[in-house]
Amino acid sequence: MPEVSVIVPVKNAVAHLAGLREQCEGLTGASTIEVLVVDDGSTDGSSEVLRSWAEGTALDLRVLRGSGQGVAAARNLAVSEARGDYLWFTDADDRWSPDIVSTLLAAARHTDADLVVANARKVGVAGEDLGEITDAARAGTATGVEAMERLLVGSLQGHLWNKLVRRSVLGVAPFPPTRAHSDLGGLLGVLGRSATVAFEAQEVYTYIIRPGSILNSRGYRWRDLPDCLDLAREVGEGRVADASLELFATNQVALPLFHESVRREGVLDVSEVRAMRAYARSLISRRSIVRAFRGGHRGAAARAVGVKLGSAPYAALYRRYRVRRYATLDAAAGERSARRRDPST
């Protein structure tokens, strides 16, 4: 039986499958690994490439047929089929260290952890460095509730690909049926069921931010974040500090929603943009701002003041920030969106 199941949801990713195969077959300790690729209704030839790969590899590889209902359903299907004691979730179009699974598995064995967390790096499609994701600032362990506190206050992010999860704490269908942020929703549940979380202070994954990603697509559903907030309250109520839940609402729901409303001006209906901003402002109160400031989250507190009291000036400031920080990505996303709207292209 495999020790680790590597889970990869795929839809119309034919351009990335050669790289995916090379990386999966190059994983250290491949003899202890199974790879489950969920083909979620591809129409670009991915299915044929995956079939050929499965027939011509020594890797323990299975290709599952998804229902076409999105990444959350695809991951849930793979969880139900996985045989490994631990699961690692990755994306076909990213890069990772060949030692990622062996490194995380060694930490899990050493600490008997239900969840192992490492670090990652964000880059743009042109290779520009967009910063490190430091989920594990130093090596050590924490309880699941302590790690949940870290997630709520922003020192632990909700991505899956820099984490290894014990299968038994995932439960049945762990990922909520949201278009975006299902990884965050699933991780909240995992933390609620985890006794021990291990932190491995190594950078093992490179997340490539592309214009076609869910968060950069026109089909982004903004109400997915409020759904995650509801789940955080459900899982954390009575287990974590009220101030942590309040900071999560401000810093990881209200502010990102407001920022998305700025990014999507001209793409979303004006009524949707207004609804996003109204909801974001409704989550911010004088108490939440003061708590954020006193808790050392002064940047979040300042941004929350801007959203609550001067949303138009703050939106202008955020536009300028986007130009400086993400000009290449936003330009590519705009071109992609224009091609979709223009039937002649």
UniProtKB/TrEMBL annotation:
Q: Which CDD domains match?
A: Glyco_tranf_GTA_type
The molecular function terms in GO held by this entry are:
hexosyltransferase activity
Name all Glycosyltransferase 2-like domain ranges.
5-126
Q: Which organism is it from?
A: Nocardioides zeae
- InterPro entries linked to this entry: Glyco_trans_2-like (IPR001173), Nucleotide-diphossugar_trans (IPR029044)
**What is the protein name given in its UniProt record?**
Glycosyltransferase family 2 protein
User: What keywords appear on the UniProt entry?
Assistant: Transferase
Tell me the Pfam families matching this sequence: Glycos_transf_2
Fetch the PANTHER family from UniProt: GLYCOSYLTRANSFERASE (PTHR22916), UDP-GLCNAC:BETAGAL BETA-1,3-N-ACETYLGLUCOSAMINYLTRANSFERASE-LIKE PROTEIN 1 (PTHR22916:SF3)
Task: Kindly indicate whether the keyword Transferase belongs to this entry.
Answer: yes
